[in-house]
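User: Structure please.
Assistant: Input sequence and predicted structure:
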Amino acid sequence: MLGAILGDIVGSRWEFNSIKTKDFPFLSEKNFITDDSMMTLAIAKSFLECESDYSNLSELVVKNMQYIGRKYPNGGYGGRFNVWLYEDNPQPYNSFGNGSAMRVSPCGIVGKSIEEVKNLSKKVTEVTHNHPEGIKGAEATAVAIFLAKNGKSQLEIKDYINEIYYPMNFTIDGIRDEYRFNEICQDTVPQAIMSFVEAKDFEDCIRNSVSLGGDADTLAAIAGSIAEYHFGIPEELRNQAIKYLPQELLQILNDFENKYGFKI
């Protein structure tokens, strides 16, 4: 899960200041956490609180996303989601935005089988993003994390995504010049996964995703959430990343890692 948070932090300064190069400052005082990290941690908190059969997971996700979203209102939330955060009876709104994929990483970590990962992903996603493409984007991300966590290679993960979810018949270098900012799953999730597939290490994965010049924090959050379980995260990067988290959110991260593990 820290991989998603680190990707979000690194990509934050480039979300609306797109770059088309891998050569950029990785972490600095200009970086910050956004809604990608906040909502990922809201879902993590829900797993820490839910029943062992996950029967109340969806309800807890709604509660915790609203709680964290209201407490940290400057996360850069999408317009419709921001309205949802303050509704007394929040309902899904048929979104296929990439917000479903940016926050789903805890499901790929907690699930003990692909089928369970899919089920958990649907539970945490459909409370807002109940469009089939929104559910698909989150599921593809969570499944890729599960496959990485269970030792599948980059090419094996690419082949699985290609067969089940999205065509993966492109390269990062091949699409970089023409790729533009957008916020839908169909045009961000496969690109984020390819950023991982082509990476040499964790940092290279994040640099691949940011260099596309798109929705940088979300692309990097998705890519980083997968890369964490294939490459691990250098301890130095972890120590830098946690400095960006308020104490309450850092506590959620620590509690989740203590229960479900973390790969350095």
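The radius of gyration is 16 Å.
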